[in-house]
Amino acid sequence: MILLSLLGKKDMYGYQLIQELKELSQNYFSLKEGCLYPILHSLEKDELISSYWEESESKRKKKYYYITENGKLLLKKEKQEWKKYSNCINNIIGGVSFEHK
Amino acid sequence: MNISKDSQEFLENICDNIKYSPIRESVKNELYEHILEGKKNYIDMGVNNEEAEKLALEDLGAPNEISKSFNKVYKRKLDWKMLIIFILLTLINILLVTSVASEVGSKQYIYRNIAYIIIGFIISILLYFSNYKKMQKIYIGIWILGVLINISNIYLYNNDKFDVLNNLHINLNLISTFLYIISFSSFMNNLNINDKKNLVICTTFTALSILLIYLSNDSMLLITTLIIYMILSIIKISTLDIKKYKKFVIPIILVILTITILNVAFAKPHLLLRMLNPDLELSYMQDRLNNSKIIGTSDMEKNIDTNYYYMNFSNYSFVYLIEQYGKILGIFIVIVFTLLAIKIIFSYKAVKDGYGKLLIIGLGSFIFIQSILNLFTILGIINIGITNMPFITHDSANIIIYMISIALILSIYGQKNFYEADKLKYNCKQAV
Predict the structure, then answer these.
(1) Are residues B228 and B145 part of one domain?
(2) Considering only residues 23 to 62 of chain A, which have any Cβ-Cβ distance to chain B shorter than 8 Å?
(3) Is B421 a domain residue?
(4) Total structural domains in chain A?
(5) Which of A100, B49, B143, B198 is the most buried (most CB within 10 A)?
(6) Nearest CB to B423; choose among A32, A38, A51
(7) For the segment B245-273, what is each residue's pLDDT rounded down to a tens digit?
(8) Closest chain A CA to residue B36
(9) Number of Cβ pairs < 8 A linking chain A and chain B
């Protein structure tokens, strides 16, 4: 869901995704960077994302990933699920913390 | 900016351990870019060149872990149901061979038949683990090979060299038909309706292959090929963006096919006569079929003629098996072929690659149509010649062709998620 949601904003290449992830999560999510690529390939295999090669300013080609229609649908569904889940947890935690008070 | 020898070794290490070779180069380029970006980032932070690259490599993690993760993603998906059908059909073949062997009693016969099955298995395994998309690069070569085999068959047949043909223990026409189907699938996959040159080449090659099969006097294989060509063209046309003509093209293909089949029948009047007067051989076989038991060996005695047909040809092997083991085995064989047809349709739907789809339907119909034609002939529904029932053949290397056809279908299904390879055409040829 995290990768899909990052790619939902704009097309990105691997390293860019890692940096974005670190920045937005304030370094909370740190994965071995090499593991990202098999995950991206797996998402691509499931047709949730797709990719293209494009020449960058440095005249080198980079592989950009983008979210597909299937990916967008799944992301929407996952976001709703997450909202329900987090609301639920918040209610529980909130309740617990209230009692402690 | 370049990368050090250590980084190059790191990349080589990952790529060498990725089992699915078509993605190696792409992954290498992607990770190469990643190292450069990481290195640049560390340099910007004030780290020296050497240290920056070392840190970038560390961030990536252990090379064997990365290749392992890739291997998990690109794992072949074994189609168990199709594999079971494949094994069942091979087992029926072994049953047929051992049964005939006990009557023939020749050691040479047994060794020869065991050799066919072993060779079939070895080629099937090799094909299963190969990348079927490579056939697309050599399809003209495959077509030429088919033509050469076809021409040699016509030459041997027309010069009455039947001994040579019999001693080969394989139907040369069957090999060329198999090769034509593979090349025709590639022709269809590469078909470009806007490119006149492409259209002319495709039509000429197709027409030539039909002419050559027509000349080789095998009406059953000709009909099989024509039906397969028609199915593949319709599949291809339905994917093309020619809405204006789509309505007309498919009926036109159907009309051309019907005219061709009728033409074959009229050009060879004996085919029509056979339809009207079932020949003795066939009615004799139907008689034997009717007198077989539900389970167990038939009580009907076999004369010299019956043994001659059963021992020397595979055309009536289906009747032979029913006579030996009962109608129940016949029903079982029909069920297995029906399941095969259903599985082919499911595999066709599951595979996303257009070339794979065409090959699955081409090779699947190659087996299914022949089994239907053999079955219908034996049951007396049609009578325009006779062909082998795939897998239900003995003392002939035809089994190898049938085995590798299913192995190819299994291989295509196994690679159904590997469409990364297609994108590599667009891949950068960057020197790493």
Answers:
(1) yes
(2) 32-35, 37-39, 41-42, 44-45, 51-53, 60-62
(3) no
(4) 1
(5) B143
(6) A51
(7) 666 777 777 787 777 777 776 666 666 66
(8) A15
(9) 73
Q: Are residues B105 and B142 in the same domain?
A: yes
Q: Which residue has the tokens 């998402």?
A: A43
Tell which residue, A16, A15, A1, has the closest CA to residue A67.
A1
Q: Mean pLDDT over all residues of chain B?
A: 85
CB contact under 8 Å between B65 and A35, yes or no, is: yes
**Co-location of B179 and B64 in the same domain:** no
Total tally of structural domains belonging to chain B: 2
DSSP at B306: H
ipTM of the complex: 0.83
Contacts of residue A31, Cβ cutoff 8 Å, sequence gap at least 6: none
> Is B421:B23 a contact under the CB 8 Å cutoff?
yes
pLDDT band at B125 (very low <50, low <70, confident <90, very high): very high
Question: Between vectors from CA A32 to CA A26 and to CA A36, what angle results, nearest 5°?
Answer: 90
Please report, for the domain that includes residue A66, its CATH number. 1.10.10.10
- How is residue B353 written in tokens? 């690659």
B227 vs B191: CA distance, rounded Å: 19
Residue in A35, A51, A61 closest to B428 by CB: A61
The model's confidence at residue B430, banded by pLDDT at 50, 70 and 90, is very low
Q: Among B209-223, B269-283, B338-352, which stretch is predicted with the lowest mean pLDDT?
A: B269-283
Q: Which of B315, B350, B364 is nearest to B85 (CA)?
A: B364
Note whether B16 contacts A: Cβ–Cβ < 8 A: no
**Does B290 have pLDDT greater than 80?**
yes
pTM: 0.77
**Which residue range(s) make up the domain with B11?**
5-74
B88 and B64 assigned to the same domain? no
Q: Which of B261-265, B374-378, B396-400 has the lowest mean pLDDT?
A: B261-265
Residue A70 has pLDDT above 90, yes or no: no
Looking at the partner chain, which of A38, A42, A63 has a beta carbon nearest the beta carbon of B66? A38
Reference B69, options A37, A83, A14; nearest CA is A37
In Å, how far is A72's CA from the nearest CA of chain B? Answer: 20
Most B CBs within 10 Å: which of A39, A54, A63, as the mutation test of the B interface? A63
Q: Pull the structure tokens for residue B232.
A: 């593949």
Q: Is B158 an 8 Å CB contact of chain A? A: no
Q: Are residues B137 and B9 in the same domain?
A: no
Chain B residues with CB under 8 Å of A60 CB are 33, 36, 430
